[in-house]
What we know:
This protein is an alpha+beta fold. Helix content is 17%, strand content 38%. The strands form two sheets. Strands 3-4-2-1-12-11 form a six-stranded mixed sheet. It has a six-stranded mixed sheet with strand order 5-6-7-8-10-9. Strand 3 and strand 4 (95-103) form a beta hairpin. Helix 3 (147-157) runs parallel beside helix 4. The chain is globular and about 50 Å long. The N and C termini lie close together (6 Å).
Amino acid sequence: MRTHRNEKQVLRVPKAMRQRIRFLTYNVHSCFGTDRRLDPARIAAVIAECQPDVIALQEVDVGRARTGGIDQAHMIATHLNMEAEFHPALHLEDEKYGDAVLTALPMRLIKAAPLPSSGEPRGALWVEIDVAAVKLQVIVTHLGLRGAERLRQATALLGPGWLGGMAQGDAHVVLAGDLNATGRSTAYRLLARQLSDAQLLTGAKPRPTFPSRLPLLRIDHVLIGKGIEVASCRVHGSTLARSASDHLPLLAELDVVMRDKQEPS
């Protein structure tokens, strides 16, 4: 529409847009299955069944003698034609063990650091992923086994070095991983005050993820911030998944909401 010279420019009303991504979180148990077989290719095959765009992995071995010294993050990513960012929560000489994010989308490392730990060392990995016109902030973590330890770790993740340091009005955040915490735990409730549980937003009954052969506990989570909507969220319980790891993967279809910039008409 053209405007007369003496008329003010008319601005179009911003129109909401959504870009759907498939987001998977999966504790791969160092690629040891419930049949005790070490098989990173089988883990990759389980992931491929879900066709995810972004993958958050926990319990990944890199250069460890017990798993043949291979780089599991790189090997799984190669099978899926993706790139990987890895953070070793545990690092002993050349042996590493920790969390990873895999995707074929443009990805940048923002932060990788330890979390307060009293038992096995724990950490978190923060990457920024380009999803259409939006920069998606993804944090993957694997919290400790003790309640007090998990609470300190959750508090740290909500602090200024992590979620508390983001510009909340602009940030599209996903926090995912094996939190070792059910919905009744203090650490989970603390995180759920700031973020929304994807499984609870679907209207369906939330399903457990552990142990994989007979799931009883819902301890793997996808938590989302503002600007993200949940289209679906389900536990992937295929025959292959039930043998590949002691956890089942959790797959969420997320709509990343963006807005057009105002343009003169």
